[in-house]
Specification:
With 313 residues, the chain is an alpha+beta fold. It contains 10 helices and 11 strands. It has helices at residues 60-71, 95-111, 117-124, 131-139, 181-186, 194-213, 219-222, 229-232, 237-243, 275-287, and strands at residues 3-13, 22-37, 41-47, 78-85, 142-151, 154-162, 169-175, 255-260, 267-271, 293-298, 306-310. The strands form 2 sheets. Strands 1, 2, 3, 4, 5, 6 and 11 form a 7-stranded mixed beta sheet that branches. The longest helix has 20 residues, at 194-213. The chain is globular and about 60 Å long.
């Protein structure tokens, strides 16, 4: 039987001021090998969270694939799936979004149908409305995501992708604890001062202009935020300590700025050099709060989701 490989990148969202607006695909991957079968599903797992994820028909990826089939008036046959993930769960790196993209992709492989972007995102938004994670995992690169409420619980997504410049390096530090997105969102105020809204709008726009014009030194200002990080960071002192690096950049050559990745707990640094040294400084501050952490230097994935048919072995 033919075997198909699906690869979905992880994502970081918010990027400081661009709260619920902008995301970036990263080179940590969810990979699936899909082999069609007449009936039944066999799922094997490896990598991050493998011991926590169901291996039967209740598996989330398989559930997503069957939801899309139902919506399109089809019924899937069976499949053998092997799922290998490099994406830590509940750490602000888009693990749930990557699984949604993977599930829709499994539908495409088993049905032989390729969805257009509008339909793809409409099915994805049934599960979550974090377009700033969904869109980068599907499209790759730096993505501006605009969610539209279509009424009756339905949402659509407009997404514009831009290539991320190779000059800007990424370092991440992943603390050894999970963050619940719902809890971190509940920490945000229902209303904010107009001056803070204007502050963030200006800097979210500045990020796009700075990338477009190659004025990377402006990312330092573009990453400043008043909408979410000041309310979320105090819940976890280690994150507050890492954010202080933004005011100490003269001690870390190459550092443009640091931010909370998604709702956390991962922290992300944008640099023009010395990503290893900056990652070490981030880790040191987290460990000083009594929390273990691991660091990684990652690339931006400018390609996005891929589907490749493999030759039978």
């Amino acid at each position: 039987m033919p075997v198909t490989e699906i690869t979905v990148p992880s994502s970081t969202s918010n990027l400081g001021a661009s709260f619920d607006t902008c995301g970036l695909a990263l080179s940590l991957y969810l990979r699936l090998m899909v082999e069609p079968r007449p009936s039944g599903v066999e799922i094997t797992l490896s990598g991050e969270g493998a011991d926590l994820i169901p291996r039967d028909e209740s598996n989330f990826i398989w559930q997503v694939a069957n939801y899309v089939a139902s919506e399109r008036g089809q019924k899937l046959g069976g499949a053998k799936l092997h799922v290998d993930s490099q994406i830590p769960l509940a750490r602000g790196l888009g693990s749930s979004s990557s699984a949604i993209i993977a599930g829709i992709s499994v539908y495409e492989v088993l049905s032989g149908e390729r969805l257009n972007e509008e339909d793809f995102f409409r099915y994805a938004m049934h599960y979550e409305t974090h377009g700033d994670n969904l869109a980068p995992s599907y499209l790759g690169g730096l993505v501006l995501a605009c969610v539209r409420d279509e009424g009756e619980g339905r949402f659509s997504l407009l997404a514009v992708k831009r290539h991320w410049p190779d000059e800007i390096k990424i370092a991440i530090v992943i603390p050894d604890f999970e963050m619940e997105t719902a809890k971190m969102r509940a920490a945000l105020p229902r209303e904010i001062p107009l001056r803070d809204a204007i502050f963030n709008i200006q800097r979210a726009a500045l990020l796009q202009a700075a990338i477009a014009e190659g004025r990377y030194e402006l990312l330092t200002e573009a990453l400043r935020d008043r909408l979410h990080q000041p309310y979320r960071a105090p819940l976890v002192p280690a994150l507050s300590e890492v954010l202080k690096l933004n005011e100490e950049r003269d001690r870390f050559p190459g550092l443009l700025g640091v931010a909370i990745s998604g709702a956390g707990s991962t922290m992300i640094a944008f640099t023009l050099g010395n990503p290893a040294g900056i990652a070490k400084a981030m880790k040191t501050r987290i460990e000083a709060c009594g929390i273990s952490a691991r660091t990684m230097e990652v690339n931006v994935d400018n390609q996005g989701r891929t589907i490749i048919q493999k030759e039978p072995s």
